[in-house]
Specification:
Blueprint: H1 2-30, H2 33-67, H3 73-97, H4 99-106, H5 118-134, H6 136-140, H7 145-169, H8 171-196, H9 203-225, H10 229-259
Length: about 260
């Protein structure tokens, strides 16, 4: 029983560790070495987003399993995913705007061109965080093979799209191929996990939030690449303010539900 549960998760870990090597291999083969260094610099800023996400993931696993034994765990799951979408979006907006300063600290001013790659790098981490929510059903139902299937689909989509994206957009194509792979993994795991357990999610909110984040990421990439920074700052400020208001309303609504 333990081996049946652990083996798929071990293979998923191997696939996750292999993905960065695949990305770098394609950059090294088809693009210049400078592109690889820019991609690595942008990934460093993306790791700033990954740090709080990893801390949350360590707590989310046992907490979600413990909560699944409650009479009404769905309200708790909905609250947590809404907070992730809201707070994660605010952090993403902030990191995109401050990406140039972060690069000068983590790398050097020579890597300023990597700023336009930062939005896509952070979006990859943001979407991977959603997989941990939507794949909860695979853990609760003890069907960890679902995670393996979603990882295999992710790898297939990456190899199927990377050459197309590379030929069109160069080094940006690597990041877009990775986002395509993560989105495919997200869809597969959400569907199969929902079939395997009774866990449901506010899918309309998740789709709307994810679409808004991807739209912001693509727009900010274009603005940074064309040095339209004033427009970027304005859009980011509006996005942060709107998202902050939404998060506050979600927290107030959850307090009323708890009090009731």
């Amino acid at each position: 029983m333990a081996a049946r549960l652990a083996l798929p998760l071990g293979m998923v870990t191997i696939v996750g560790l292999a993905m960065p090597f695949f990305e770098k291999a394609f950059v090294a083969k088809y693009l210049a070495f400078q592109d690889l260094s820019l991609l690595a610099a942008a990934s460093k800023v993306g790791m700033i987003f990954a740090l709080p996400l990893q801390a949350f993931q360590m707590a989310w696993g046992p907490l979600s399993l413990a909560t699944s034994k409650d009479k009404n765990p769905q309200s708790f799951y909905d609250l947590v995913v809404k907070l992730y979408l809201g707070l994660g979006s605010i952090l993403l907006f902030s990191l995109v705007v401050s990406g140039g300063y972060a690069l000068s600290i983590l790398a050097s001013t020579e890597y300023e061109r990597a700023w336009s790659m930062i939005p896509l790098s952070i979006a990859v981490v943001y979407l991977r965080g959603l997989v941990n929510f939507l794949g909860l059903g695979s853990i609760i139902s003890f069907k960890t093979s679902i995670k393996l299937w979603s990882s295999l689909v992710s790898i297939l989509v990456f190899f199927a799209t990377v050459n197309i994206w590379l030929s069109c957009l160069g080094v940006f194509g690597i990041l877009l191929a990775t986002i395509s792979a993560v989105l495919s993994s997200l869809l597969v795991e959400a569907y199969m996990s929902h079939k395997a357990s009774a866990v449901s999610w506010p899918y309309k909110i998740i789709i709307l939030s994810s679409f808004s984040v991807i739209l912001f990421v693509l727009l900010s990439t274009y603005l940074i690449h064309n040095n339209m920074l004033d427009t970027l700052y304005l859009i980011s400020l509006v996005a942060v303010l709107i998202t902050s208001v939404v998060v506050c309303r979600v927290i107030q609504s959850s307090r009323k539900n708890i009090a009731a």
